[in-house]
Specification:
alpha+beta; 8-stranded parallel barrel; globular
């Protein structure tokens, strides 16, 4: 090789090495947001999958974001120990989210956010991590380059060495099934930039190193109640530090670590210090020649001055941009979010424009929100809770919005059991609604219900908003549903209750207030379903197709539930019905292998009883005088119907002469 070709070859190699180094320090996205409060639920059946939609992803992208970090309580999306098998409903709906990201070309980080600030990371967490990430890798291996994995958010209370070894094993587990996707790896110490240097050089060329930034902590977390000690009483900390406006430290923090934050704030509370700390992450990137990413930063809204808060975001976001570090702020809706404090969080009306400007984001047109009377009905629940409904239930029982055993319609229904008296299914309307027009035009609260105990009762009620007026109360307007109104016979029943039939029930604001006619249909805050008269206990309630509508359109399927099985949840007696012949003509034999006497009822499709008998073990019925058609056969004990099936009664065709 001549000297010219050698120089040229060396130059190309050098350029490739330089370019490789540059690429190693960059991510394929630049700025984004954490979509919090969605998949951060106690189990897969407490996630309300329609809370966000493809339109929300479109809105987020329109702001100038190109990446979304999706916090997921991943360990809770499973059936628990020992296998930690991911729930199918979780995977089904998460795949839809991935579809949106890929279609819109938004980078999506699947962040394992199974995390509690008050609980140290268990050194044995690797067992769970390996099981859940193996499944995730198998599930998403063929998805596009827009999808990323983040092993675990903010490990803390665990040594760097222990965590680093756990993380290495999880990387290896993922790579056994997926070599396509980038993995986010982070340090112990709450993903602190100070712990980046303690991370090993993992042998994987598709890693992105992540850290979080919440300094100065006294400023970013003033008002935070989840710390120990709580910082709820800290407020109006200025940024930058100003001696003339700095509030004094509450005496309750004397001798705690928070006292140190106050002592150091004159030095920590300024932009220069912020940049100095972020430079620790920059130095790590330059030394390791690896891409880094700031997965979280933000300031809690509750007790912070808004102008100071915006100034801090401007400082952090601009500096990260200037040193080419990609970021996702914490969060979209929420206490650190992009919307005006105490607003409805509506994209067209409530975005925090100064905050968007501070981070050089796009500013969509904003208009003032005006609440108008609802003029059409709407869906509350039909397989899923509808969007703009926030679930705020309080119950000590089992509440499952995705119960899939014989729903009246579609895939799922709501199942509730074990609730104590006064516990509630509570659904908050976002924003509050004006029902005045619906009431005047004879709209109704419309739903189907199934119960298995004639002693069940519950109240359905709407609650109006408590205003700033100290004399105003959250008045209730509702109706009590008892066995006299609907048979709790383990079959679906349709209720169509005109709103004008509801009556004021009173108000509770720490003490009880009798009704005085103050309920306000123009300002409806939420819907509640409550066992007001006693514990729900071991009884089971199921709800489906919940609407506010002027049409009596819901149909109940009299055969929903049962062919030889117990239809209500929690039963252990399989009942083991045999019915023959079916279709039947003159005689029908029913066998039910139990030791006790059984009640039997044959009903037509409208629920009218045609025949009733009692038997043990088996019975032969003469049905020659029953008209041809489809009938329901119900069996039960003295207290309740526990089994049902269906039978067709027909007659042989007569010969034609």
């Amino acid at each position: 090789m001549n000297r010219f070709l050698l120089r040229r070859t060396l130059l190309i190699v050098a350029l490739v090495m330089i370019m490789s180094g540059v690429m190693a320090q960059e991510t394929p996205f630049s700025k984004g947001v954490n979509l919090t409060g969605w998949y951060q639920a106690g189990n897969a059946r407490k996630v309300h999958y329609k809370k966000y939609s493809k339109q929300d992803f479109i809105n987020i992208k329109s702001l100038g974001f190109d990446v979304i970090r999706l916090p997921i309580n991943l360990h809770y999306m499973t059936d628990g120990a020992p296998d930690y098998t991911l729930d199918n409903i979780f995977l089904e709906n998460l795949n839809l989210v991935v579809d949106w990201a890929e279609e819109l070309q938004i980078h999506l980080i699947l962040d394992n956010h199974t995390f509690s600030p008050s609980v140290d990371t268990d050194p044995g967490v690797g067992t769970i991590l390996n099981k859940v990430w193996k499944q995730m890798a198998i599930e998403f291996v063929n998805r596009s380059e827009y999808i990323y994995y983040e092993i675990l958010n903010e490990p803390h209370g665990i040594s760097d060495i222990s965590w680093n070894n756990i993380q290495r094993t999880v990387i290896e587990t993922i790579r056994e099934h997926d070599n396509n996707h980038y993995i986010f790896v982070g340090p112990a110490g709450w993903n602190s930039y100070n712990n980046l240097a303690a991370m090993p050089e993992y042998d994987d060329d598709k890693l992105i190193y992540t850290f979080h930034f919440y300094d100065p902590f006294l400023f970013t977390h003033q008002g935070a109640s989840w710390n120990t000690p709580s910082m709820l009483e800290i407020e109006n900390i200025p940024f930058p530090y100003d001696d003339s406006s700095m509030p004094s430290m509450p005496s309750s923090f004397e001798g705690t670590w928070v006292e140190g934050l106050y002592d150091n704030y004159p030095n920590d509370g300024n932009a220069a210090k912020v940049r100095e700390l972020l430079d620790i992450a920059v130095a790590f990137r330059e030394e390791r020649q690896v891409p880094i990413f700031c997965g979280e930063f933000g300031v809690y809204q509750l007790n912070s001055d808004e102008e100071d808060r915006v100034r801090w975001y401007n400082t952090v976001a601009h500096y990260l941009d200037s040193v080419n570090i990609a970021w996702t702020m914490w969060d979209y809706h929420g206490g650190f979010g992009l919307f005006e404090e105490n607003s409805n969080g509506l994209f067209e009306h409530d975005l925090n424009v100064p905050l968007l400007e501070a981070m050089d984001l796009n500013i969509p047109e904003q208009t003032e929100y005006k609440k108008l009377p609802d003029s059409t009905g709407f869906v509350i629940y039909n397989d899923y809770l509808s969007d703009f409904i926030n679930e705020v239930s309080y119950t000590d029982g089992i509440l499952d919005y995705f119960y899939n055993v014989y729903p009246n319609s579609g895939k799922y229904c709501i199942h509730w059991t074990g609730a104590s008296r006064y516990q509630a299914i509570a659904l908050d309307f976002i924003p509050d609604k004006d029902f005045t027009k619906l009431v005047n035009e004879d709209y109704a609260f419309d739903f189907v219900v199934r119960g298995n105990d004639p002693m069940i009762s519950f109240e359905v009620r709407f609650i109006d908003s408590k205003t700033d007026d100290p004399n105003d109360l959250p008045w209730r307007n509702g109706i009590t549903i008892r066995n006299s109104r609907v048979s709790f016979d383990n079959m679906w029943h349709h209720l169509h209750i005109p709103l004008q039939y509801l009556t004021e029930k009173g108000a509770w604001d720490g003490e009880w207030h009798d009704p005085i006619g103050e309920f306000d249909w123009s300002d409806i805050d939420r819907l509640e379903i409550v066992p007001e008269e006693g514990d729900l206990g071991q009884a089971h309630l199921l709800f489906d197709q919940i609407y506010v509508t002027d049409m009596d359109t819901v149909s109940t399927d009299p055969f929903t539930g049962i062919d030889g099985k117990l239809p209500y949840p929690g039963s252990n007696d399989p009942c083991n019905i045999k019915i023959y012949p079916n279709p039947a003509s003159e005689y029908l034999t029913i066998e039910c292998k139990t030791e006790n006497e059984i009640n039997i009822s044959i009903r037509d499709i409208n629920g009218r009883e045609i025949l009733q008998e009692r038997f043990t073990d088996s019975i032969e019925l003469n049905i020659s005088d029953i008209s041809p058609g489809i009938y329901i056969i119900m069996l039960g004990d003295q207290c309740k119907w526990i089994c049902q099936s269906k039978v067709v009664i027909s007659r042989p065709a007569q010969p034609v002469c």
